[in-house]
Amino acid sequence: MPVGAPAPDLEARDVTGQSVRLSDVRGHAAVVYFYPKDETPGCTHEACAFRDAFRRYEAKKITIFGVSRDSYDSHKQFRLHYSIPFPLVADEDGSVDRAYGVPNTLGMSKRVTFLIGADGKVARVWPDVDPAIHADEVLAAAGP
């Protein structure tokens, strides 16, 4: 999905189980990051990096959405295991992958991140992600 395109809406569950939609946070920036699988080393590292930077994202009023093909139950366990404070999208049928044009292999999303502007449009895309530095990289790109 190119920069400037309207970001497709998506729905996730927060840590309390409540539904959160991308459209609910319009007027503020958001991060939509796709990752292959809960509880795998790279994905855990990436999620924990976003977790560790979460307060800085909150200070900028930026909502984070993690997206993978895992189930809601898998996401729930993953969030509990690592104290992940942001919502995760259970994209079991791959419809969110397809809407964002994210490739998948063997039923797993490729690691891609989208920064969504306050206007609901894609502001930046990271097609190749290094989980070790990515959370800070995205936060810096979001501006002041």
Care to give the gist of this entry?
With 144 residues, the chain is of the alpha/beta class. The chain has five helices and nine strands.
Describe the structure.
This protein has 144 residues and is an alpha/beta fold. 30% of the residues lie in helices and 24% in strands. The chain is built from 5 helices and 9 strands. The chain has helices at 41-52, 54-59, 72-82, 95-100, 134-141; strands at residues 11-13, 19-21, 30-34, 63-68, 88-90, 104-105, 108-109, 112-116, 122-126. The strands form 3 sheets. It has a 5-stranded mixed sheet. Strand 4, helix 3 (72-82) and strand 5 (88-90) form a beta-alpha-beta unit. The longest helix is centred in the first third of the chain and has 12 residues, at 41-52. The chain is globular, with a radius of gyration of 13 Å. The model has no long low-confidence stretch (mean pLDDT 93).
- Return the structural class: alpha/beta
Distance between the termini: 25 Å
Secondary structure tally, helices: 5
> Which strand order does the major sheet show?
5-4-3-8-9
Shape type: globular
Q: What are the secondary-structure elements, in order, as H or E? A: EEEHHEHEHEEEEH
Mean pLDDT: 93
Write the layout of secondary structure elements.
Elements: E1 11-13, E2 19-21, E3 30-34, H1 41-52, H2 54-59, E4 63-68, H3 72-82, E5 88-90, H4 95-100, E6 104-105, E7 108-109, E8 112-116, E9 122-126, H5 134-141
Parallel strand pairs: 3-4, 4-5
Antiparallel strand pairs: 1-2, 3-8, 6-7, 8-9
